[in-house]
Amino acid sequence: MKSHARVVVIGGGVVGCSVLYHLTKFGWTDVVLLERSELTSGSTWHAAGGMHTINGDPNVAKLQKYTVELYKEIEEYSGQDIGLHMTSGLMLAATKERFDWMKSLLAKGKYAGGEATLISAQEAHEMMPLLDPKQFVGAVFDPHEGHLDPYGTTHAYAKSAKKNGAEIYLHTKVEDLVQLEDGTWRVITDKGEIRAEHVVNAAGLWAREVGRMVGLELPVLAMEHMYLITEDMPEVIEFNKTTGKELMHCVDFDGEIYIRQERNGMLMGTYEKDCRPWSPIETPWTFGHELLAEDLERITNELEIGFRHFPAFNNAGIKKIINGPFTFSPDGNPLVGPVRGMTNFWSACAVMAGFSQGGGVGLALANWIIEGDPGFDVFAMDVCRYGDYATLAYTNAKVRENYSRRFSIRYPNEELPGARPLLTTPVYDKLKAAGAVFGASYGLETPLWFAPEGVEDKFSWRRSTDFEAVGREAKAVRESVGLMETSGFAKYMVSGEGAKDWLDHMLAGKIPAVGSMALAPMLNEAGKLIGDFTVANMDDEDFLVIGSGIAEDYHMRWFEQHLPDDGSVDVEPLNLGLLGLSIAGPKARDVLAKLTHLDVSDAAFPFMAIREMDLGMAPAIVGRVSYTGDLGYEIWMRPEYQRYLFETLMEAGAEFGISLFGLRALNALRLEKAFGSWSREYRPLYGPYEAGLGRFVALKKPADFIGKKAAMEEKLSGGTLRLKTFIVEAKDADVIGDEPISYKGEVCGWVTSGGFAHASGVSVALGYVPKEIADELDGWSVEILGDILPARLQPQPLFDANGSRMRN
Ligand SMILES: Cc1cc2nc3c(=O)[nH]c(=O)nc-3n(C[C@H](O)[C@H](O)[C@H](O)COP(=O)(O)OP(=O)(O)OC[C@H]3O[C@@H](n4cnc5c(N)ncnc54)[C@H](O)[C@@H]3O)c2cc1C
Question: Aminomethyltransferase C-terminal domain spans which residues (predicted)?
Answer without folding.
Answer: 723-800
